[in-house]
Structure formats: C-alpha cells, structure tokens
Amino acid sequence: VVVPHANVVALAAQGEPFGVREGTRVLQFASFSFDAAAWEVCTSLLTGAVLVLASEADRAPGEPLAALITEARIDVVCLPPTVLSAWPEELPMPEGITVIMAGEACPPELVERWSAGRRMINAYGPTETTVCATLSEPLAGAVKPPVGRPLAGKQVRVLDASLRPVPVGVTGELYMAGAGLARGYLGRARLTAERFVADPYGEPGARMYRTGDLVRWLPDGTLDYIGRSDD
User: Fold this and answer.
1) Helix H or strand E encompassing 23
2) Domains in the chain, start-ordered, CATH in brackets?
3) Quick check: pTM over 0.85?
4) pLDDT tens for each residue of 144-183
5) Residue-wise DSSP of 33-83
C-alpha cells in the first residue's frame, strides 16, 4: 500500500482525540510491520509525547504486558481486544489510562470489565486510509462498541450495491473518502482500480476507498460495524 508521508504527518497532528499530547507516555506496542506502529511512533514524537520502547518479552500478553504498563506509567496504549482480554484478573489496570481498541471487533464484556475509571475508545481504519479513519467516544458499560465518527478531514459513505446512500439503521458497505487515502497498491494497477473508485459525491477527480466492511449508521451519528462483505 503506497501511503504518502503527508498522510502520516496529518494523522500524527491529530493526537488530541487519542489523548496524546506533550508529555504523554505512549507505549510502542505494535510490531513495526503493522501500520499501528506508524501511529504510535509518529504521533508520539511529533507531539512531544514520550514513546516508551520495550522488548518483545515485556510486551507479551498477560502478566508481562500488565507489569510493563503499570511500572512504565503508561498513559496511552493501543491494543487489539484479544491482547487486552489476556490481562490477568488479579492484576489491576492503572486508573486514568487511555486504552485504544483497534485491529479487530471489541466484545461488550471487555468494555464492561475495563472501562470504569479509564478512558476506553474504539478505533477503526484500514492501512489504505492511513492507519485510522474513525474513532468512538469514550465507552462505558456492557455495550457493543461503535467504530465512531470520522477523524477530521476524513469522509465516510455507507452505500448500497448501486452506490446510493443507505438510511440510518440499514446495512451498507463502508467507503472512505477525503483526506488520508493511499495512492493505491504498488505494482498492482488492477487491484488499485477495483478498490479505489471514483467518488460520485466528491469533487471532480475525487476517489473513495471500498473497504469491504459492512456497517450501518446509528441514530446518534456513529457507525456500527456489522462484518465483512466477503464472509
């Protein structure tokens, strides 16, 4: 996926919605082969936050990661829900920490278990939209986490098979437009043409990315993730 440097800089400039600001201690958890690592590194360093590096052994799910987050006084961490679910029940999680769920669907019971006393948010975004495209409000209770609203500059379209907008509550395919779109797939012109299509609702020449994800608008203006169109 060819992502311009300017897209990463623009994403890194939006640290505030994630709770990242000068002096914030952010754990670098993701593998460098995963796009979330670009968010962790660039957002931290370009906002004056503290990027905390740790060995793979210390970042292992379960007791090692729990000890690392506590002892390193981490303020913000981005984790897949399966990693958070491995946190030992007998070990408390620091209060006031911002926990960003990303990479897979987050079950309601995980929100119920860890949201009290902490800022827990759900993030969504394929690499083709530069790591993160939408973000939820802080979560609480045993709720199915929505994938939230688009970040500044990004546009969301929920369309049917004829590329027509669907009403609130009706499932459609998620298309992303606006700022942050990748240029396409390196050396794969046909796939680029299939996934990055003309945006009929944008300016002349505008494109949108066909995610393949099925979502629906909720009455409060947030997005509810349903599943994949190819499942």
Assistant:
1) none
2) 5-150 (3.40.50.980), 154-228 (2.30.38.10)
3) yes
4) 999 999 999 999 999 999 999 999 999 999 999 999 999 9
5) TSTHHHHHHHHHHHHT-EEE---TTTTSTTHHHHHHHHHTT-SEEEE-HHH
